[in-house]
Amino acid sequence: MANVFIVAAKRTPFGAFGRPRRRRQADPHRLCDCRKRRPHRRPYLARHVGLRTGLDITVPALTVNRLCGSGFQSIINAAHEIIAGDANIVLTGGSESMSLAPYALRGIRFGGTRFGVDLKLEDTLAAALVDRFPKETPMGITAENLSQQHNISRQDCDEYALLSQQRWAAGKFFFCSLQLAIVPVEYKVKKTVETLSHDEHARPQTTIESLAKLPSVFKKDGTVTAGNASGISDGAGAIVVASEQAIKEHGLKPLAKVVSWHVTA
Questions:
Q1: Residue ranges of the domains in the chain?
Q2: Which residues are CB-contacts of 120 (< 8 A; sequence separation ≥ 6)?
């Protein structure tokens, strides 16, 4: 099997939910393909990213959707293409702009309104966090079901959440490469241009005691709380994946080797 390497990685800071953000353009690379995950607002994000970053119009693009795992899937797809000989360098990545998730009006396109009946807006972000098949199950309830199935306690969840905060803090203060990977983002607030250069969602001051005080959200005496659940935030990341041949041709420096992967339902 051909060797596959990660040769570049950048990300934006992760912004807090509900605050305005603007994407920033990046410099184009010698790319022969572009893979991106799909956000809420653009059905063909990969093509938009390629064109806006200066890639040639002949460079193909593919937008993938594996929900939260879409960014990882874009790297897997890149490895597939390199192994198959269809590409030597692939731009991969993912984006999430939860703050821009729209409200929707259902059933009005083809005369679905009646006199005197108020229309109801649907929060598409909240709706997206509910699995509709085989029955409506919110993501939080899925987490509660899994905690019962695998005997995961509330303390287990809190300890893991605390570990995530501690790892973020360690990366921020001790690993310079992690900070160098962050690309500041400029955005407008009225007529003023501001810059976001740090993660807003992390809470390094978190303690196991503060987590233990939070009530469960989805189920009485459950395991999922606002402190140990996945956060709602905005951000994006990009990774350049290359073959061994491309590394030699363009003098690229490998950051990591893609060894294997696996997906389960």
A1: 4-99+232-258
A2: 105, 106
Q: Is it true that the peptide bond before 134 is cis, omega within 30 degrees of 0?
A: yes
Number of Cβ within 10 Å of residue 145's Cβ equals 12
pTM: 0.83
CATH fold for domain 4-99+232-258: Peroxisomal Thiolase; Chain A, domain 1 (3.40.47)
pLDDT 10s per residue in the chain (265 long)?
Answer: 789 999 999 999 998 888 754 443 333 444 455 655 544 446 788 999 999 889 999 999 999 999 889 999 999 999 999 999 999 999 999 998 888 889 999 888 887 778 888 888 999 999 999 998 888 999 999 999 999 999 999 999 999 999 999 998 887 655 445 566 889 988 888 888 989 888 888 899 999 999 999 999 999 999 999 999 988 989 999 999 999 999 999 999 999 999 999 998 7
Report d(CA 204, CA 182) in Å as an integer.
18
